[in-house]
């Protein structure tokens, strides 16, 4: 009678089953692990939200960048952007939104002003969980078009209502933007918003009649400024002409005084010379000069009268005595004294020039510092 043996699995088949089971386990482990890990890239923070337990809600501290492990059954990681966001609210449908999203606010007089506004902002990473916990939104553009835009429109109205329309339309536009930025920072800063830049793009849009009135007022102001500048120019030119005339008059007076002084000096010199001649011309000297000039020839023709001969009235000449000689010596002495004074003055001027040049070439050494106690 034959014996029936039970069927047995070959060893190779058991190995294949084990490998297949291990592969299935690894696949399930990889799927489970991938659902427990996420990556937080640069420019974002990961906000951990607890879905169960007594501490359900947003965790107060954000996770760092990189790979983050969490329990997908009880936790959720929300990626929240912290990079700079740019948004434009404009009337132009080809920029920003397709519909008119420009901002309208009122001035101190109640004039409506419309403007295209641009905003750049980012979120403080440490306050990102608080912002997400308040609004439950991670789309910053959605927050900007709602919450941020309303806050900005309110700030524009609050600040513009304290300024006249002409100031807003002119040089006060920068001041308005600065004040609105400060107010928005005070209002949105506690939620984590950081205002990087707020701008008014392009020109402000006013009612046509208001814009025309402001333009006319500005034009009148410019004309007044030009007229004032012209008056200043004419005044400056008149003062310059007066200064030139005064300078010319002073120069003319100086020339006249110089010419008068020169004539006076010449006259004095001639008078002194005449005095010298007067006291030096005695009859003997004149007779000698006449003989010195005579060439020794008598006139060829004579009318029959006395022979012409140069004669002098000795009574009108100096007597040639001691008094005349004394006066002559005094005059000559005065001339020598004046020449010595002039020579001394010239020598003094030259010496002063030489001393000044020497002082420039060799400056005096600094005084020594007092000894320390």
TrEMBL record:
- Coiled-coil stretches noted in the UniProt entry, renumbered to this chain: 210-255
User: Compositional bias of type Pro residues: which residue ranges?
Assistant: 363-373
As for subcellular location, the record says:
Membrane
Q: Name one GO cellular component term.
A: membrane
Topology within the bilayer: Single-pass membrane protein
Q: Where is the composition biased (Basic and acidic residues)?
A: 338-358
Protein keywords: Coiled coil
Q: Output the superkingdom of the source species.
A: Bacteria
For the Band domain, which residue ranges apply? 39-235
Q: Which SUPFAM superfamilies match?
A: Band 7/SPFH domain (SSF117892)
Which Pfam families is this protein grouped with? Band_7
* Coiled coil as UniProt keyword: yes
Q: Which PANTHER family match?
A: MODULATOR OF FTSH PROTEASE HFLC
What is the protein named?
Band 7 domain-containing protein
């Amino acid at each position: 009678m034959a014996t029936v043996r039970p069927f047995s699995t070959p060893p190779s088949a058991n190995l294949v089953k084990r490998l297949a089971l291990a592969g299935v386990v690894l696949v399930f482990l990889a799927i489970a692990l991938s659902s427990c890990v996420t990556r937080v890239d640069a420019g974002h923070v990961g906000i951990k939200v607890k879905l169960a337990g007594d501490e359900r809600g947003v965790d107060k501290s954000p996770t760092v960048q990189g790979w983050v492990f969490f329990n997908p059954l009880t936790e959720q990681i929300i990626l929240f952007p912290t990079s700079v966001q740019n948004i434009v609210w404009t009337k132009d449908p080809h920029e920003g939104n397709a519909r008119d999203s420009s901002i309208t606010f009122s001035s101190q007089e109640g004039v409506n002003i419309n403007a295209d506004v641009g905003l750049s902002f980012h979120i403080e990473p440490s306050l990102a969980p608080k912002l997400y916990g308040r609004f439950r939104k991670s789309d910053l553009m959605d927050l900007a078009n709602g919450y941020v835009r309303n806050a900005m429109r309110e700030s524009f109205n609050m600040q513009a209502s304290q300024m006249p329309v002409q100031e807003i339309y002119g040089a006060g536009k920068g001041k308005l933007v600065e004040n609105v930025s400060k107010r928005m920072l005070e209002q949105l800063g506690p939620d984590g918003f950081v205002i990087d830049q707020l701008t008014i793009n392009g020109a402000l849009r006013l009612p046509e009649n208001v814009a025309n009135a402001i333009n006319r007022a500005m034009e009148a102001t410019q004309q007044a400024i030009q007229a004032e500048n012209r008056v200043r120019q004419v005044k400056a030119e008149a003062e310059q002409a007066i200064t030139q005339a005064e300078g010319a008059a002073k120069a003319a007076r100086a020339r006249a005084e110089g010419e008068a002084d020169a004539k006076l000096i010449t006259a004095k010199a001639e008078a002194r010379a005449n005095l010298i001649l007067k006291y030096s011309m005695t009859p003997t000297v004149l007779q000698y000069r006449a003989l010195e000039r005579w060439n020794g020839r008598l006139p060829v023709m004579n009318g029959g009268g006395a022979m012409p001969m140069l004669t002098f009235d000795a009574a009108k000449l100096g007597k040639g005595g001691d008094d005349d000689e004394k006066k002559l010596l005094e005059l000559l002495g005065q001339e020598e004294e004046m020449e010595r004074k002039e020579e001394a003055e010239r020598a003094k001027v030259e010496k002063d020039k030489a001393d000044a040049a020497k002082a420039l070439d060799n400056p005096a050494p600094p005084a020594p510092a007092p000894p320390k106690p």
